[in-house]
Amino acid sequence: MQLDGIEGRVAVVTGGARGIGRCVAETFRDLGARVAVIDLVPDELDGVLSIEGDVADEASVDEAFGEIEARLGPPQLAVLSAGILHKAPVEEHTLADWQRLLDVNLTGPFLCVRRVLGGMRAAGHGRIVIIGSSAGIDGAGAAPPPLPAYAASKAGAMALAKSIAREYAPYGVTVNALAPTLIDTGMLSTLASDFRGAIPVGRYGLPQEVADLAVFLCSDHAAYITGEVVDINGGYLID
Predict the structure, then answer these.
(1) Domains along the chain?
(2) Model pTM?
(3) What is the pLDDT of residue 116?
(4) Can you list the pairs that 206-211 forms with residues at least 24 positions away whose Cβ atoms lie under 8 Å?
(5) Is 224 one of the annotated active-site residues of the chain?
């Protein structure tokens, strides 16, 4: 894949130690970006700056981005992939369960975009992609087990992307979200059932397929795309 607007730019990926986030970080690196990963449990990646950080904690976010700015420069590209999943009927959700998912999946993207937007506005250029979920569109009603807190948190994150996109479009900053479904990651392995029969293309998605789309939205080729929630689900949810 050859994309303009990636090489030489500073790219940050949250939740980049594994799964979709790791693929995003490796793809940025292979295209010549200067890449930093923020993760609660970082893993060393060749050619990538790995930083321990909790996206749900304001001080931790500020410290992590401060280190990135000091070592690489102000971020120009950001893919916010950190997320957690909790499976339970709504009556069995504790307030702590609910709050933790909101903290990571919704407050996390808010804290990270708030931290990078000033620099992007000043530079007149920025690309942000938030990894949402189709659960934030349909409530995950078609795919048991119930995911009420996860669905609500992802819906909020995707709405956040739309709101910021409208506000920052005049400054050369695009903000989009992805709504993947049933991607073959560690998170998917926690589901008890096999859903491949419900996917029109007949298979689970690959983390690299999501990563390629996220990185494309960060490239110059996607400069006229902002405020979008882009489905990537093999036809599982067609809306």
Answers:
(1) 10-232 (3.40.50.720)
(2) 0.95
(3) 98
(4) 207/19, 207/20, 207/22, 207/23, 207/183, 208/23, 208/27, 209/183, 210/20, 210/23, 210/24, 210/131, 210/178, 210/180, 210/183, 211/20, 211/23, 211/24, 211/26, 211/27
(5) no
